[in-house]
Amino acid sequence: MALPEGLDDMYHKELTKFEEKEKMPYITTAERIGSEKGIKKGIKKGIKKGTLIGKILMAQEMIRQSVYSEKKLEGKTLTELKHIFAEIKGKLKKFGF
C-alpha cells in the first residue's frame, strides 16, 4: 500500500527523527578504553581509601580516641587520610602498639 506523496514525505521525516532520537551515541574505541581505564583507576583508589579509613577507625579504637567519624573520613582525600593515619600511628607507638 502506498501513501499519498505528502504523507509519504511526512512519514519518512518523522521516521528519521525517531531513529536519530533513539540511537545510542557512538563511542570510539579510544573513548571506551579510556573510560574502562578510568573506572579501574577509580575502583583501586576507592579500595585504598576504604582500607585506610578502616585502619584509622581501628587505630582510634585502640588508643580510645575517636577524633574522626567514618562519615568525616569519607570526605577526605587519599592524601589527607594518609596524613591522618601517620599521625595516629605515632600515637599508637606512644601507647605501646
Question: What do these coordinates show?
Answer:
- The protein is an all-alpha fold.
- The chain has a domain at 34-97.
- Helix content is 76%, strand content 0%.
- It contains four helices and no strands.
- The protein has helices at 5-22, 29-62, 70-74, 78-94.
- Helix 2 (29-62) runs parallel beside helix 4 (78-94).
- The longest helix has 34 residues, at 29-62.
- The model has no long low-confidence stretch (mean pLDDT 88).
Distance between the termini: 87 Å
Provide the residue-averaged pLDDT: 88
> Could you tell me the radius of gyration in angstroms?
28 Å
Q: List low-pLDDT spans.
A: none
Q: Which bin fits the share of residues in helices?
A: over 70%
How would the global form be characterised? rod-shaped
The counted number of beta strands is 0
Concise summary:
The protein is 76% helix and 0% strand.
List keywords for this structure.
single chain; mainly alpha; 97 residues; rod-shaped
Question: What is the topological layout?
Answer:
Elements: H1 5-22, H2 29-62, H3 70-74, H4 78-94
Helix pairs in contact: 2-4
